[in-house]
UniProtKB/TrEMBL annotation, chain A:
HAMAP family: GatA. This is glutaminyl-tRNA synthase (glutamine-hydrolyzing). It comes from anaerobic digester metagenome. The keyword Plastid does not apply. GO terms for molecular function: ATP binding; glutaminyl-tRNA synthase (glutamine-hydrolyzing) activity; transferase activity. GO terms for cellular component: glutamyl-tRNA(Gln) amidotransferase complex; mitochondrion. InterPro entries: Amidase, Amidase_CS, Amidase_dom, AS_sf, GatA. The keyword Glycoprotein does not apply. GO terms for biological process: translation. PROSITE patterns: AMIDASES (PS00571).
TrEMBL record, chain B:
Keywords: Ligase, Transferase. One of its GO terms (molecular function) is transferase activity. HAMAP family: GatC. This is Glutamyl-tRNA(Gln) amidotransferase (Subunit C). The keyword Ligase applies. Its EC number is 6.3.5.7. The keyword Transferase applies. PANTHER family: GLUTAMYL-TRNA(GLN) AMIDOTRANSFERASE SUBUNIT C, MITOCHONDRIAL. The gene is gatC. It comes from anaerobic digester metagenome. One of its GO terms (biological process) is glutaminyl-tRNAGln biosynthesis via transamidation. It is an enzyme of class 6 (ligase). It holds the Pfam family GatC.
């Protein structure tokens, strides 16, 4: 299976078996075990694991073995989950197809000629083809939801601040958030129970009352007020995808939700806003890769400046360099106000669109992506074309709200994801809607035939 | 309009050494991408406050306590070159 999908950068079979034996011992001793005990949860390779290679799919970190684990990894270990391996991604999580991995491209289990989506493509593919029961990914502009949609699994991006980012290799710190992949909504709730909550090691982690997310697994959405933003159903959305999403919305309505079309008027500015803010933050975050304390260092350099320049030029791939260039440009003297500051102001307008919509609606729904999974190589030549894959997902990161992709049908054999969007820290409403949809449909039971 | 000189300047700021081919590609692509982003200039944002991040957090304080620290060998384990307990780099001047 792995020969054909290539979901993992590193497999940790021995570690998983050792963890599983520990759970077996607990069961034999009659100890109480957690619902995740013994469950294989794969982890995206930009999340640090103590003593286990963590590369962010970059040559820059090709040999990096972290001396500590991310808070989410510690929490999964505490819950007894086992680690089958570290999954492939676009280099430093920059991309929408996993083709920017410095090592290899992961394949979509539904059609191995197509991409799994990105950047958490390895995690989505591993869960889709049964190489892991669940997985963790990270989502800066759609990097959990897009691959979940392309691979026909559930992907959840929690509210910004709901999950600690400590030990997540930083891409764009005001947008990054870790979240789970699973095959059903119940597992998604169990993983959220394990990973959500305040962490003193992440100063942007929020203090909030973490509920037991399983109490939202209720098959009832009667009276739920759902808005459908027209901008997310407009031209540019593939007609087959739109048809499937319209049918899914009709199902939610038939189950007792009230559905209305609404507007998020600044949607057309989201892509530009995102692709200024995210590269600006990335250019700053990636300044740390200088060949001094860890990671790759170029050979044969004349002085320290030459070493910095050669190390970074040889260590980073084309998309990462492009974003460093774009971000550095947007932050540089003379352009800061016109680009970066302008983008931060438009971000306010985008967030206010959501604030207004959530005065009227409990939930917003839309497609996750304008198309189903595209062919490998189809969009690698044109960065803007690739960026457009994120058009329906990026606004949520700018606004910091939770978002979820759930399987809602197929177009020519390829899965389509329905995006659920909610208020800050209202993960519960998303889970309830997703659970109700799941209990009244069969899409999540479909498996790819390999 | 991003010129080739702009690209060379920004590459230096970002500590990237670009090949002639890369300079050409990035000049073209930055123009394409930033040209697309010109749409933002249509919006009047005169009185709008910028949003750097979405949480209602200002300063975050905590108690200053003595915790467990990473052993020195662990902290040095990934470095490309060292001299005893120091990170070693090529000559600076």
């Amino acid at each position: 299976m792995e020969d054909r999908i290539a979901a993992y950068i590193t497999r940790t079979r021995e570690k998983a078996l050792e963890q599983a034996r520990a759970v077996d011992r607990q069961i034999r001793n009659g100890e109480k075990i957690s619902p995740l005990a013994g469950i294989p949860v794969a982890v995206k390779d930009n999340i640090c694991t103590d003593g286990i290679l963590t590369t962010a799919a970059s040559r820059m970190l090709a040999g990096f073995v972290p001396p500590y684990s991310a808070t989410v990894v510690k929490r999964l270990e505490a819950a007894g989950a086992t680690l089958p391996g570290k999954t492939n991604l676009d280099e430093f999580a920059m991309g929408s197809s996993t083709e920017n991995s410095a090592f290899f491209t992961t394949r979509n289990p539904w059609d191995t000629g197509r991409v799994p989506g990105g950047s958490s493509g390895g995690s989505a593919a591993a869960v889709a083809c049964g190489e892991a029961v669940c997985a963790l990914g990270s989502d800066t502009g759609g990097s959990i939801r897009l691959p979940a949609s392309f691979c026909g699994v559930i992907g959840f991006k929690p509210t910004y601040g709901a999950v600690s980012r400590y030990g997540l290799i930083a891409f764009a710190s005001s947008l990054d958030q870790i979240g789970p992949f699973s095959r059903d909504v119940t597992d998604c709730a169990l993983l959220l129970n394990a990973i959500c909550g305040h962490d003193p090691l992440d100063s942007t982690s929020a203090r909030f009352d973490v509920p037991d997310f399983t109490r939202f697994l209720v098959n009832d959405i009667r009276g739920m007020k759902i808005g459908v933003p027209e901008e997310y159903m407009a031209e540019g959305i593939n007609s087959g995808v739109r048809e499937v999403v319209v049918k899914a919305i009709a199902l939610l309505e038939s189950l007792g939700a009230s559905v209305e079309y609404t507007n998020l008027p600044h949607t057309e500015y989201a892509l530009s806003t995102y692709y200024l803010i995210a590269p600006a933050e990335a250019s700053s975050n990636l300044a740390r890769y200088d060949g001094v304390r860890y990671g790759f260092r170029a050979a044969k350099t004349s002085d320290v400046m030459d070493m910095f320049m050669k190390t970074r030029s040889q260590g980073f791939g084309a998309e990462v360099k492009r974003r460093i260039m774009l971000g550095t440009y947007a932050l540089s003297a003379g352009y800061y106000d016109a680009y970066y500051l302008k983008a931060l102001k438009v971000r306010t307008l985008i967030k206010e669109d959501f604030d207004r919509a959530f005065e009227k609606y409990d939930l917003l729904v839309s497609p996750v992506s304008p198309t189903t999974a595209f062919r490998c190589g189809e969009k690698t030549g044109d960065p803007l074309e690739m960026y457009l894959s994120d058009i329906c997902t990026i606004s949520l990161n700018l606004a910091g709200i939770p978002g979820m992709s759930i399987p809602c049908g197929f177009v020519e054999g390829m899965p389509v994801g329905l995006q659920l969007m909610g208020k800050h820290f209202d993960e519960g409403t998303l889970l309830r809607a997703a659970y109700t949809f799941e209990q009244n449909s069969d899409y999540h039971r479909a498996f790819p035939v390999l | 309009m991003v010129t080739r000189e702009d690209v060379e300047h920004v590459a230096l700021l970002g500590r990237l050494e670009l090949t002639e081919e890369e300079k050409e590609i990035y000049t073209r692509q930055l123009n394409d991408i930033l040209g697309h982003f010109q749409a933002l200039q249509r919006l009047d944002t005169g009185n709008i406050q910028p949003t750097a991040h979405v949480l209602p957090l200002k300063n975050v304080y905590r108690e200053d306590w003595v915790g467990q620290h990473m052993p020195r060998e662990d902290a040095l384990a990934n470095c490309p070159d060292r001299d005893e307990n120091y990170f070693k780099v090529p000559k600076i001047v």
